[in-house]
Design brief:
Elements lengths: L14 E3 L4 E4 L4 E4 L1 H4 L4 E5 L6 E2 L4 E7 L3 E5 L4 E6 L2 H4 L2 H4 L14 E5 L11 H15 L1
Antiparallel strand pairs: 1-2, 2-3, 3-9, 4-6, 5-8, 6-7, 8-9
Length: 142
Amino acid sequence: GVGLGGMRMRFYGERVFTPTHEWIDKETGECGITKYALSKGEVVYLEMPEAGSVVQTGDEIGEVASVKSSSALIVPVGGTVTEVNSELEEDLTTLNAGANAESQSDSAWIYKLSPSDPLEFSDLMGEDEYGQFAAKLEDEES
């Protein structure tokens, strides 16, 4: 997904979402958390999984803590963690930038996953569906 600025937009169709506000890119296996989750407060602490971990759908493999709350990092589809974003160990700026992004999945990836069964992607939401889901939650909170 190399490209300048807006060029990356076309890859967004490859990103699918969980009801627990994670996204995964079907092409690259990159996983992150959504704009909705990031907009709840600046992330001050991130616990990431270890590369090489074999994980199941729904496993809690990390933690995301903001000044207001803390939530588990949930695995979107089962597989193997192949890489973690070491930049985030030093600096969470690129992650927190996602709170102001236009897209729900335009934030730094946290780890990469090699799915054991790509058919599991069909259980997840597309960008539009997740957008409606998040908007509904926003309404309920306000």
